[in-house]
Amino acid sequence: MPEAVAKIRIDKWLWQARFFKTRTLAAKQVSAGHVRLNGQKVHKPAQNVSVGNVLSFAQGSQIRQVRIEALGERRGPAPEAQGLYFDMTEKQDNVPRNPRYEGKGRPDKKERRALDLTRRLDTL
C-alpha cells in the first residue's frame, strides 16, 4: 500500500507561509481565482496542496511564484515561514525613477530659476 502524501488546504498554507495577514484574506484571493496551482486556476480555498506544487499569485504590485518545500504545523515567525517555500519570482528593481520636469513631476532648482525668469519677463 503506498504511503499517504501529506496535504494541507491552500488558504491555510498561504497564511502559514505569511503571504497573507489573515486566513480569510487568503481564502478570498483563492475564491476570486487569483491563485494558480501548477498553472491551473484554483477557485476553492479547500484545495489541497503538497510539497513540490508551484503557486502563482499577486502580492502587492508583483506576481509571486513559489514552490512549496514543506507543510507547516503552525503560523510561526517569519524565518520559520520562509523555510516553507522556495521563491522563484524574478527579482525586479522596484525603485521608481525620479520624474523630470517635462510637464510632470517637480522641477529642480535650475529649472525653477528659469521658470521664475520667464514669469518675470512676462509681467514687464
Q: What is the number of strand segments?
A: 7
Helix content: 25-40%
Largest sheet: number of strands, sense, barrel closure: 5 strands, antiparallel
Strand order of the largest sheet: 3-2-5-6-7
- Strand content range: 15-25%
* Main structural class: alpha+beta
Rg over C-alpha atoms, rounded to the nearest angstrom: 24 Å
Helices and strands, in N-to-C order?
EHHEEEEEHEH
Distance between the termini: 95 Å
Oligomer: single chain
Tell me the number of helical segments per DSSP (H or I, 4 or more residues long): 4
> Ranges with pLDDT <50 over ≥5 residues?
none
What does this structure look like?
The protein has 124 residues and is an alpha+beta fold. Helices cover 29% and strands 21% of the residues. It contains four helices and seven strands, in the order βααβββββαβα. It starts with 7 loop residues before the first strand and ends with a helix. The model has no long low-confidence stretch (mean pLDDT 86).
Indicate the topology.
Layout (H helix, E strand, L loop, with lengths): L7 E2 H7 L6 H9 L3 E3 L2 E3 L5 E2 L4 E6 L2 E7 L9 H5 L2 E3 L21 H15 L1
Helix pairs in contact: 1-2
